[in-house]
Amino acid sequence: MSEGLYELVALGARYVFAALMVLIVLRAWRITIVDSRRAGVLRRLSPQTGLSGELLVLEGEGKACRGMRYPVIREGMIGALRRSDIRIRHASIRRKHAYFQLTAQGLIIQARPGAAMRDAGGRRAETLLLGDGDEFTLGKVRLLLILTDGRMAEEPDEEETVFADRGEDLFLEEMEE
């Protein structure tokens, strides 16, 4: 290979690597902006979605290490995808691992077919009903559910509703007199 051709190839390689670096930086910047916008939307919607608790990692490794906390809203998906409502970055967690919903009885978690989920006793489960302080395992990550605002999911009793209606009626009668 001639010296002139070698210099042209080396110069071209520099530009190719510089273009790749610019592409990597722009892509990372774009992902950061998309994630921050999504987080802003979630913060604005949190009063409507009902931020109702968190999942605390009791046993985990790597990016899902012990002590990490994941916020829990009323319903959504747990998985490794960036778009998951609860994103747990661990090799044993599938992209779409399980769905969850907060009800008056507690948090119901439904595992996707083939996804590993175990209750506190270590028994394999497809559906779990969890209350405040309950433990469970997704993949190889052991989690603890901490409900901070359980009243958001509570449904009013019929007696309370009737009592509230009677109270309003009594108040209106007093005003008419």
Task: Describe the model.
The chain is of the alpha+beta class and 177 residues long. It has helices at residues 3-49, 158-176; strands spanning 53-59, 69-72, 75-79, 86-87, 98-102, 107-111, 117-118, 127-130, 135-138, 141-147. The strands form two sheets. Strands 2-1-10-9-7 form a five-stranded antiparallel beta sheet, with no helix packed on it. A hairpin with a 4-residue loop joins β5 (98-102) and β6.
Keywords:
single chain, 177 residues, alpha+beta, Tumour Suppressor Smad4, 2 domains, five-stranded antiparallel β-sheet, five-stranded mixed β-sheet, 2 helices, 25% strand, disordered C terminus
- CATH architecture of the largest domain, by name, is Sandwich
In which order are the strands of the major sheet placed?
2-1-10-9-7
Number of strands: 10
Mean pLDDT over the residues: 81
Structural class, by secondary structure, is alpha+beta
How would you summarize this macromolecular structure in one to three sentences?
The chain is α+β, with helices and mostly antiparallel strands and about 180 residues long.
Show the helix and strand layout:
Layout: H1 3-49, E1 53-59, E2 69-72, E3 75-79, E4 86-87, E5 98-102, E6 107-111, E7 117-118, E8 127-130, E9 135-138, E10 141-147, H2 158-176
Parallel strand pairs: 3-4
Antiparallel strand pairs: 1-2, 1-10, 3-5, 5-6, 6-8, 7-9, 9-10
